[in-house]
Each structure stands twice: as structure tokens, then as C-alpha cells.
Give the backbone structure.
Amino acid sequence: MPLLHFEDFAPGQTFALENRHTVTKDEIIAFARAYDRQAHHLDEEAAAQTIVGGLCASGWQVCAFAMRLMVDGFLANTTAQGATGVEECRWLKPVRPGDVLRVEAEVLAVSVPQSLPGVGFVKLRWDLFNQDGLVTQMVSAPILRRRT
């Protein structure tokens, strides 16, 4: 399959990625020990007493799950050169052990910066779902090489 370039994207275009990730208790706790040492990410009993009502992944880990799914299922097949950042990130529901995650993406806008010849920005909304529905939304703008 040929690499997708900037010109291959248009507003309204959607991508439903087929790859999945099943979240484990061990990976939630390992990430929390290293990066986000809050009780609801580290200890099931303590987490049960919090507003989230049980062990859940750090929002930053959830973003990493989404990134891995996006790279494996989509971005690795593009001319992506990085991104301008994450414009928006909303953690809508906790991600828990046993959740099976998948990503859908929609192109919101495309633009060509005058200051960077040879590339374009593709503004994407990433929707991360578990088996019960939407859990996280992110908006970012990957930078893709142009054909022309």
C-alpha cells in the first residue's frame, strides 16, 4: 500500500482502525508507578474509594494507548513528520483493566503553511472507544509531506 501524503486527506474523511488493545491491570499499575502515582491508578482498594470507583488507567497512559493504535493502524502508513501538538484532550470515562480499545479518526481541516514548503497540516479528531463506547477524544494536527 502506498504511503498517504497530505493531498490524500480532506475534511470529513473518516478512518475506523481495525487494530485493538486490551488493557491489563499490570500495565496500568506499572505506568502509574513510573509516571502518575495517584491511588486510583495504583491500588484497587484505594481506587474503590475514589470518585472513579475503581482502578483505572492514567489519562496520559490512555493517550499513549491511542497513540500506539494510531501509529500501528494509520500513521505508520503516512508521510507524517511529527505534529504541531495536541489541541484538545478530553478524558470522558475511565479506562479499566479488561477494556478493549480501538480508535476512529476524522479529518477536521487541512492547511498548507506558507512558512514550511513541502508539508501540510491535517487536523484530526481521534475518538478512542472501549467495548461500551467513547472514552477519550483528542484533536491534533500531524504534519505530512506533500507530493508537490
In short: The radius of gyration is 17 Å.
